[in-house]
Design a protein that fits this description.
Blueprint: H1 21-33, E1 36-41, E2 46-51, H2 54-63, E3 68-70, H3 74-81, H4 90-100, H5 106-110, H6 113-133, E4 137-138, H7 139-156, H8 159-167, H9 174-177, H10 183-190, H11 192-206, H12 213-219, H13 231-262, H14 264-276, H15 284-288, H16 291-303, E5 310-314, E6 318-320, E7 323-325, E8 330-333, H17 335-338, H18 358-363, H19 382-397, E9 400-404, E10 412-414, E11 418-420, E12 425-430
Parallel strand pairs: 2-8
Antiparallel strand pairs: 1-2, 3-5, 4-12, 5-8, 6-7, 9-12, 10-11
The structure holds protoporphyrin IX containing FE.
């Protein structure tokens, strides 16, 4: 039983979350101080608390979630996303989440299967041409563009093609092309509000029928006041979905292909599974029945969770890991560390997709695996992200085997999302 009032921690100060070095520090501190420790953050002059035990994580994200708001990390995100559901709090967040939730229902998402199929077919043709030329593809860019196209077309439907025709370019392309997420990018990205506003205005005027997220959000009503979202609210939610839906999925797919290129036997097993399910357009149910492919994606998300650091701030005092937590304390949770916690994972550094099947999975602590977070603020896009990733891996693994074009060591970049620092070049081999 812990009695000390203050958890252990390093004597040095360090701004966790502020640089790639954070991952090294998180590992170091965990080795030294275990499940609960605190680190002085020089940039803000306060102590950040770090928790690594799934019971405490459950408390912060689920059982006592009312005591926590999104913490320090979210300020950076706000510059980019305004006040969409990723960054808002309290009654406003609750209202927006309630209005958006039905659009992410499984029945609705299933209707995107033809779109997922069409976009993957287009990229399969590109990959096929690269294979024929014997040239590598820039996998990082390919999946970034592919996931951006999916998110944009699922939001704006046919309006995206109209915009491209009118202006000759995809105005949202900057999101995939520009890798930095600095202030300059935030400024360019926020200028897209004009484009979104124009689409919304045109739809209000023309009253045309669409099936896409924008039309669902425009039709949604507050259940108390029966009011729709204002243009401002709609725009912030759209920009939130674009960024939240694109970067995370792109990073997860990049990691998946990287891991497959390093594990031939696993790749072969995926190929065998795709050969058994050769149906062209996969429904959500059919995609989910690709059990092994699902396990591989889960394992990629375990080792490299794009959302590698979640931050919360306590409203009132609490207790975590046996230590008192004062009001207004920033509490950090790292899925990257949790997913490698030696008490909850055997051989945590190894890539073993089968750990997501059978007894291993059934007996594991439910809160030891949180790539999409848990509790009321868990990822609203979890189902569509999984659907999208399953369809993509299935579509491509049926036809191609990807091998690395070089042997450059992979370094981790831990900014808002966890991704490989440099572009991953891959040779496409036709099967
Ligand atoms: C592999 C893909 C994805 C991963 C790993 C992921 C991960 C996460 C995580 C960890 C959170 C919680 C953040 C926090 O609590 O601080 C989150 C929230 C969120 N995600 Fe995702 N996400 C993915 C895909 C998507 C997609 C495809 C969409 C939408 C199309 C989406 C939309 C959102 C939104 C709107 C939130 C905020 C929810 C709220 O606060 O109510 N995500 N995601």
């Amino acid at each position: 039983m812990q009695t000390a009032a203050i958890p252990p921690g390093p004597t040095e100060g360090f701004d966790l979350g502020g640089s790639d070095e954070s991952l090294i520090k998180l590992r170091e501190y965990f080795e030294q101080f275990g499940n609960t420790y605190r680190v002085f953050a020089p940039s803000r002059g306060v102590y950040n608390y770090v928790i690594n035990h799934p019971d405490d994580i459950k408390r912060v994200l689920l059982s006592n979630h009312r005591n926590y708001i999104k913490g320090e990390g979210i300020d950076r995100v706000k510059i980019l996303l305004g006040t969409g559901i990723m960054t808002s709090e309290g009654d406003f967040w609750r209202r927006q989440r309630r209005m958006m939730q039905p659009s992410f229902h499984r029945r609705v998402i299933d209707q995107f299967s033809a779109l997922l199929h069409e976009i993957n077919e287009h990229y399969a043709e590109r990959w096929s041409a690269a294979a024929a030329r014997g040239q590598p593809i820039n996998l990082t860019e390919e999946v970034s563009e592919l996931t951006l196209e999916i998110v944009l077309r699922s939001i704006f439907g046919a309006d995206l093609a109209r915009l491209k025709r009118q202006s000759g370019v995809n105005p949202f392309h900057v999101v995939a092309k520009e890798q930095n997420r600095d202030l300059k990018f935030a400024f360019r990205f926020r200028s897209l509000t004009k484009v979104a506003a124009e689409i919304i205005e045109t739809r209000r005027r023309e009253q045309t029928e669409h099936f896409d997220f924008l039309s669902m959000l425009m039709a949604s009503r507050d259940r108390e006041t029966d009011e729709p979202m204002s243009n401002r609210e709609l725009i912030d939610e759209l920009l939130t979905l674009i960024v939240a839906g694109h970067e995370t999925t792109a990073a997860a797919l990049t990691w998946t292909w990287y891991l497959l290129s390093q594990h031939r036997v696993v790749a072969q097993q995926i190929e065998e599974e795709t050969d058994r399910y050769s149906a062209q357009t996969l429904s959500l149910g059919a995609a989910e029945s690709l059990k092994y492919t699902h396990q591989v994606i889960q394992e990629a998300l375990r080792l490299y969770p794009p959302g590698w650091l979640l931050t919360r701030r306590s409203l009132e005092a609490d207790e975590l890991g046996g230590f008192p937590i004062a009001a207004r304390t920033d509490v950090f949770i790292s899925p990257y560390m949790l997913h490698r916690h030696p008490d909850f994972w055997s051989q945590p550094e190894d890539f073993k997709p089968e750990r997501f099947a059978g007894d291993d999975a059934a007996e594991r602590h439910r809160f030891a695996y949180i790539p999409f977070a848990v509790g009321p603020r868990h990822c609203i896009g979890e189902n569509i992200a999984m659907f999208e990733m399953l369809v993509h891996v299935h579509s491509m693994a049926r036809r191609f085997r990807l091998t690395r074009a070089d042997n450059e060591p992979i370094e981790l970049e831990a900014h808002i999302n966890l991704r490989p620092r440099s572009n991953l070049m891959m040779m496409v081999n036709k099967r």
